[in-house]
Specification:
375 residues, alpha/beta, 18 helices, binds S-adenosylmethionine, binds ligand LAOBWLLU
Length: 375
Amino acid sequence: MHHLGHSDETKEMFQAQSHLYNLTSVFVSSMSLKCAVQLGIPDVINDHKRPITLLELASALQIHPSKTTCLDRLMRVLVHLHIFAETLVPKHGGGGGEEVEAYVLTYVLTPSSSLLLRDKATGLSPFIVAMLDPALMTPWHFLGDWFRGSHESNSSNKLISPFEAAHGSSLWDYGRKNPEFGHAFNGAMAIDSQIMNLVISDCKHIFQGLNTLVDVGGGTGTVAKIISEACQGLKCTVLDLPHVVAGLPESENVKFVGGDMFEFIPPSDAIVLKLMLHAWSDEDCVKVLRKCREAIAGKNERGKVIIIDIVIGETQDDDAKAIATKLFFDMLMMAVVTGRERTEKEWEKLFSEAGFSQHKITPMFGLRSLIEVFP
Ligand SMILES: C[S@@+](CC[C@H](N)C(=O)[O-])C[C@H]1O[C@@H](n2cnc3c(N)ncnc32)[C@H](O)[C@@H]1O
Ligand SMILES: O=c1cc(-c2ccc(O)cc2)oc2c(O)c(O)ccc12
């Protein structure tokens, strides 16, 4: 291909333009992924038991023939994103020792699409659909207006989020009023929590010596179940909003309490807060942490708060991708709730304002850290 001999200035301008076009269209990656999940493409490929051609895929998905070329284009982008891979297979099976003359292009799963299969407990498909629900996408369209200050505070005189500006309710209240969304969101969080299964053996010592534990905002109890199964005899209570825990099945070691963490946290040896404090302002975090301190009062050296959350600026942050994801999370916490991601210094400030004297941070899995906080 012949390239025109552009000046450095022109090259730079085209690069800048290309960068902006790329940023403007990155949502196409998320939406193409969501489409693949909605169509059930990973399961169709898996159920086929061998590499699948475009026509076989279109037929299994019952796609109208007029849209086969559109499916081809969807698959092309998903292959580019490493969700699926292409492989050439001999046209007529190639068995029998005869020379193969023609090959046909087929699709196979990759490690990423293997995580989307329906039968896997850790299958991420419901997570992807919930996180890309229009209810969570709409607030982003309100961000500009929200910055300009047209949406300042709700009835309790607190700064409202772009989510509340868009929907007229906080994320948690919206989930109560729209149970389908609420269940999908809680289901997504439960899937995210399944990852604890992979690390619990490494952090069992954190729960050693504890008799009781409360998982504050523990959703449908995934983390509590994993911890209680790993630590024999440990009695776990999950505190979450009443509509979240209503009717959930209990067991001998996992009980549910419906309530508001700003009002009351049941007394226990330790409190777990996973992906909780990052959803709240500093002022609200200090209130919750003070309630936690009351709940573990009198437990001597056993008493502690165990936080699983993001810490910005850790050594793992050498990886540019990890930094970007943490910064994206920070924006997410701005758009859908009233929280933020915090550096160690910012966490430390919250702990000392809430009356805690010591903390220990252990980088954990993925982007999360485990922070033990002591009175
Ligand atoms: C992001 S989810 C985290 C769920 C769980 N900890 C996990 O990591 O899978 C936040 C949870 O906080 C709960 N929540 C929100 N406000 C609360 C409150 N005032 N008191 C108790 N729980 C609350 C929500 O219902 C939701 O289950
Ligand atoms: O809207 C969200 C999304 C998440 C989330 C995204 C990706 C993950 O791997 C885990 C969690 O977390 C949230 C959260 O903790 C919160 O308090 C409010 C909203 C969201």
